[in-house]
């Protein structure tokens, strides 16, 4: 039967799939489905988005391929990355040599610290003080996972103080992937040891002082490659 002039014309299938992909991305980005959580079942997604099962399956498959979602047989589909870039970076970091990871971190963190020293605001400095305090408390308590998360949070706060949106977004993707590798660098046998401690107080003070040269030097000092490159 030919639709009447007043009948809504259904969107083409590929368009519907793209729309669902964007809706799924938005739910993940907004924190409705946090990292590590299981997304709703296929029937629930069908009801939520008002589309057919095949459309849902294609959209989920696309995000699985992009590294954002992971299907676990007999368990469900889980969020393993917040966006496609993080997923791609995560796979690349997992395959990289340790020296390459250090060099990439240094490239981001040295420039981020330099810019933060030039552009930090009073609000940025307050956020840095809070992040540093949380990091130090986690170290004193000997909580490896908490310390690694706090260390990443401090460096992410420095990137935010650099006030370069692209730099902050790229570092967020790299930083999330590097969180796993950081555990190996700060802990021995699952425990924090004094010889692995790195003082970040001088880095924060250099940013507070508005000294880009010193801030860059402090950021790079604990990210030297093994060969001293």
UniProtKB/TrEMBL annotation:
Keyword Transmembrane helix: no
Keywords assigned by UniProt, alphabetized: DNA-binding, Transcription, Transcription regulation
Superkingdom of the organism of origin: Bacteria
Annotated InterPro entries: GntR_C, TF_FadR/GntR_C, Tscrpt_reg_HTH_GntR, WH-like_DNA-bd_sf, WH_DNA-bd_sf
Family annotation (Pfam families): FCD (PF07729), GntR (PF00392)
Chaperone as UniProt keyword: no
Residue ranges constituting the HTH gntR-type domain according to the UniProt record: 14-82
Protein name: FadR/GntR family transcriptional regulator
């Amino acid at each position: 039967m030919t639709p009447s002039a007043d009948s809504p014309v259904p969107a083409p299938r590929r368009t519907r799939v793209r729309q669902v992909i964007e809706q799924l991305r938005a739910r993940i980005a907004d924190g409705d489905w946090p990292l590590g959580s299981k997304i709703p079942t296929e029937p629930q997604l069908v009801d939520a988005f008002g589309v057919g099962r095949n459309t849902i399956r294609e959209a989920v498959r696309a995000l699985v391929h992009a590294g954002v979602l992971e299907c676990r047989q007999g368990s469900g589909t889980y969020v393993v990355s917040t966006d496609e870039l993080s997923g791609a970076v995560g796979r690349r970091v997992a395959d990289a040599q340790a020296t390459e990871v250090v060099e990439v971190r240094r490239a981001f963190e040295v420039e981020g610290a330099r810019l933060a020293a030039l552009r930090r605001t009073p609000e940025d400095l307050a956020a840095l003080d809070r992040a540093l305090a949380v990091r130090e408390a986690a170290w004193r308590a000997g909580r490896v996972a908490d310390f690694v998360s706090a260390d990443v949070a401090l460096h992410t706060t420095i990137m935010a103080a650099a006030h370069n949106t692209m730099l902050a977004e790229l570092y967020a993707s790299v930083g999330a992937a590097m969180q796993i590798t950081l555990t190996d660098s700060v802990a021995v046998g699952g425990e924090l040891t004094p010889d692995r401690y790195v003082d970040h107080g001088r880095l924060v003070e250099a940013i507070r002082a508005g000294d880009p040269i010193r801030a860059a030097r402090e950021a790079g000092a604990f990210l030297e490659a093994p060969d001293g490159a």
